[in-house]
Amino acid sequence: MKYPLAKIFPISLIGSFVFPETNIQLAIFFLIILMTLDFITGITASYILEKNKFEAIKLISKNKTINDFLYFFNTDSIYKLRCVLLKLNNVISSLKLKNTGIKISLYFGSVIIVYLFEQIFFIKKFKLSFSEMNFTATSFIVLFWCGVEFYSIFFENFKKIGLDIKSILLKYFKEFISIKKEINNL
Questions:
Q1: What mean pLDDT is predicted for residues 60-74?
Q2: Residue 87 burial by Cβ neighbours in a 10 Å radius (0-12, 13-18, 19+)
Q3: How far, CA to CA in Å, does 164 sit from each of 15, 94, 160, 168, 185?
Q4: Which residue from 20, 34, 50, 138 puts its CA 20 to 30 A from 119's CA?
C-alpha cells in the first residue's frame, strides 16, 4: 500500500480500494477530518446558541409577563412560545443528524460519480502551472468539498461560538497595511 495512513485508518483503507494508486485517498482522508471538525464545531455552536436562548428567557422571565415573552420571540401566539421553550436544550436533533447524513451522501456520492465518469470516458489527468501534482476532476470535487467544510468551520461555526475569524483577519490585515505604509514613508 502506498500510504502508511491507510494501515491506521479504515476509512482511508476503503478509499485506497475505491481510488487505487492516486493521491485522492489522502484528499478524501483530509475531507473526512474536516467533516468531523465541522460536526464537532457545529454541535458546540448549537449548544452555545441554545444556552444563550435559555439565558435570555431566564433574564426576561424575572419580572415580565407572557406578552414580553411573545414580543421577545416575535411570535403571535402562546403555542409558538411553548414550542420555543420545548426546543431548548435540543442541541442534537434528528433533523440535524439527518442533514449530516444527507451531506455525507452528497459529498461522497458526487466524488464517486465523478470518479466513475472519469473511468468510463477515459478523462486524462492534467497539470496546473502552480503544482507538480496531476489533477483530475475527482480531485477538484474533493478540493471543492474541503473548501466548503473549511468555510463552514472557520467562518460560520466559529462565528456562532463567538470567535469571528473574518473580523480578526481583517483587523490584522489592516494593521499590516498601516505598518507597511509607515515603513514606506520612512
A1: 55
A2: exposed
A3: 34, 28, 8, 6, 32
A4: 34
